[in-house]
Amino acid sequence: MSDKQFATIAVRAGIESDSQHNAVVPPIYLTSTYSFPGLGELPQYDYSRSGNPTRNMLADALSELEGGAGGVVTSCGTAAINLLVSALLGPEDLIVAPHDCYGGTYRLFNTRANKGDFNVAFVDQSDPSALAAALAKKPKIVWVETPSNPLLRVLDVEALCQQAAQVGAQVAVDNTFLSPVLQQPIKLGADFVVHSTTKYINGHSDVVGGILIAKDPEQAENIAWWANCIGATGAPFDAYLTLRGLRTLVPRMRMHEENAAQVLAYLQTQALVGQIYHPALPDHPGHDIAVNQQQGFGSMLSFELAGSQRQLEVFVAALNCFSLAESLGGTESLIAHPASMTHRAMTDEAQAEAGIKPSLLRLSVGLEDPRDLIVDLEQAFKQAAEVGA
Ligand SMILES: *Cc1c(COP(=O)(O)O)cnc(C)c1O
């Protein structure tokens, strides 16, 4: 791992690396192919599906931030997850995943398992007996999301990695919700880290991208081989934009958190707000773990609207500073209704089992002035209250 601090790694990745014109900011390589010096002389790069200097620069920077041996930048977060299961799992193998995992991850694992590509067991990983029963089946991979989406449940990664190691399972952590600034799973014992870089890492809601990072150099080579084989790698232009976003990741994460803390404090005073889900709350499941394993609480939070479906509709429609949209981690604030949006791929039963109620709303608190965010919430609650239950 580098001896540099996070902000320095993020800001200086690839800076002054251009040997042709001494450009301070690294150029973008939009080429699909590269010339060979001569017959039988293989250049460092030969084809951009296999390797591209701009994409590799981003992969190296993120891998360094996560403390990994290497990573593959993919076309989206889902492609990174698919790359992991393609590289590691066969028809006899089992992956254990959380019952409340990201909707697209749930769909991917479920669909591929139904095709017979591998086996999946969805369990409540915070339930020790359910987890022990799943681990007893000797999974090859344990998939972890912490904090989880959308209920922000926090799981003890270090403890889970120790338990997984006892049955020979490798642990992969989806670190999208916190970014390496607020949590480093490899340091906690994980073997793989996945990001949807679409979210905080790019941070400007203008790129869809992902990365899979391996702790072990052999696995880093293995996933790079598979990424080329199945064609999972990302576009150079996307990598360039994501590297640009990465440069401000540290200050953005700090401001995201500050704003979320103010929104959280405001929500706690509201009559129309029921249960709030955020790791900073002392009675939140896993709060104590979050204090130890995270370097901050992040800026995702969910709450149940304590009113009718009609009031929920009025509240959401009245907001001006929170756009009704899926995704998260951009500079702009978003609101989502998990039951009908991000988690609609789950059946009603699966949603109920995961604790996702129809009254649940999820906020991605952005970088607007928090005073404006609170004024906006205030007028939307007022309109919802006026409709009456
Ligand atoms: C968005 C997201 C993904 C999927 O990433 P895409 O870039 O949309 O493919 C996976 N996990 C989490 C936690 C996410 O938020």
Automatic annotation (TrEMBL):
Keyword Transcription listed: no
Q: Which UniProt keywords apply?
A: Lyase, Pyridoxal phosphate
The organism that produces this protein has a lineage beginning with:
Bacteria, Pseudomonadati, Pseudomonadota, Gammaproteobacteria, Vibrionales
Which InterPro entries does the annotation name?
Cys/Met-Metab_PyrdxlP-dep_enz (IPR000277), Cys_met_metab_PP (IPR054542), O_succ_thio_ly (IPR011821), PyrdxlP-dep_Trfase (IPR015424), PyrdxlP-dep_Trfase_major (IPR015421), PyrdxlP-dep_Trfase_small (IPR015422)
One GO cellular component term noted in the UniProt record for this chain = cytoplasm
Per its record, what are the GO molecular function terms?
Answer: cystathionine gamma-lyase activity; cystathionine gamma-synthase activity; pyridoxal phosphate binding
Q: Which organism is this entry from?
A: Photobacterium lipolyticum
Name under which the protein is recorded:
O-succinylhomoserine (Thiol)-lyase
Identify the cofactor(s). pyridoxal 5'-phosphate
Q: SUPFAM superfamilies from the entry? A: PLP-dependent transferases
Q: Which family does it belong to?
A: Belongs to the trans-sulfuration enzymes family.
Q: Name one GO biological process term.
A: transsulfuration
Instruction: Quote any Pfam family the record assigns.
Output: Cys_Met_Meta_PP
Indicate where the modification N6-(pyridoxal phosphate)lysine is found in the sequence: 199
